[in-house]
Design a protein that fits this description.
Blueprint: E1 17-22, H1 27-38, E2 41-49, H2 56-68, E3 72-77, H3 101-104, H4 116-131, E4 135-137, H5 153-166, H6 168-171, E5 178-180, H7 188-197, H8 222-234
Parallel strand pairs: 1-2, 1-4, 2-3, 4-5
Helix pairs in contact: 1-2, 1-7, 7-8
Length: 246
């Protein structure tokens, strides 16, 4: 009769697969980070310091990543103010305020940073290849967004194709690149509900494009208005302080 041999290693959980998660410090990326962990990945968080005028989001990204205990958090400096072309990187351009939903959907606003998500995903792709990871997470959204072309499903599909052609791992067939966009078809209210269910602390996040000297969110830029509307539609209270009443 054969004797059973106890193998402690067989009882250990399988190691988590690494994934690179783009974390800006906003509520979308905080929710995506929690979702990546909930799906069984070991998140490596990447935040880009691109010279954005709302630099408070960099501190928010650090808080969010600390709360999620990511495997590693890299804040990479890449100053896009050298190019300008956006109200977020060029001081002479004003951030639009008090725009209606119809105005937000009418065209691409001046807060669009040229090729931002293409640049950010390319950097995430490079780090993922070094890590031996084939999964990238990004919090783009094609429902409640301010007209940005690099938040659309067509862009994500195009980048996935690029990743396969542009990397050694892709060309040698080591794995299949996955660009995870779990929020892309959700409303802002649904994102907030999802994050709340996962235990995301939204008080750690920052969304405003133009905070005041007291570090309060302006409440009037597109990002603030979308956030406020999302919390209201979700039936929840936004924990952030605003400089203006709704």
């Amino acid at each position: 009769m054969s004797k059973l041999v106890h193998n402690p290693a067989a009882e250990l959980p399988a190691p988590r697969k690494p994934a690179v998660v783009l974390v800006s410090g906003g509520l979308d990326s905080a929710t995506v980070l929690a979702m990546a962990r909930q799906q069984g990945f070991s998140p490596y968080a990447l935040t880009i310091d691109y010279g954005q005028r709302h630099r408070l989001e960099l501190d928010a990204a650090r808080r969010v990543c600390a709360a999620e205990a990511v495997a590693r958090h890299v804040v990479l400096a890449l100053d896009l103010r050298a190019f300008g072309g956006s109200a977020l990187t060029a001081g002479e351009l004003d951030v639009p305020k008090d725009r209606s939903p119809q105005q937000m959907e009418a065209g691409i606003p001046i807060t669009y940073v040229p090729a931002r998500n293409t640049i950010f995903l390319a950097l995430a792709l490079g780090w993922a290849e070094v890590l031996g990871a084939f999964d990238l997470f990004v919090g783009v959204n094609a429902v409640d967004y301010s007209g940005y072309p690099d938040c659309r499903p067509e862009f994500i599909d195009g980048f996935r194709h690029l990743a396969r052609l542009a990397t050694r791992a892709g060309v040698e067939g080591r794995g299949e690149w996955n660009i995870h966009t779990p929020l892309i078809h959700l409303s802002k209210a649904d994102i907030i509900r999802q994050g709340t269910a996962l235990g995301v602390d939204f008080s750690l996040t920052h969304s405003c494009y133009d905070p005041d000297e007291f570090q309060r969110s302006c409440g009037r830029c597109d990002s603030c208005r979308l956030r406020r509307r999302g919390f209201a539609e979700a039936g929840l209270t936004d924990p952030l302080e605003y400089a203006t009443d709704p």
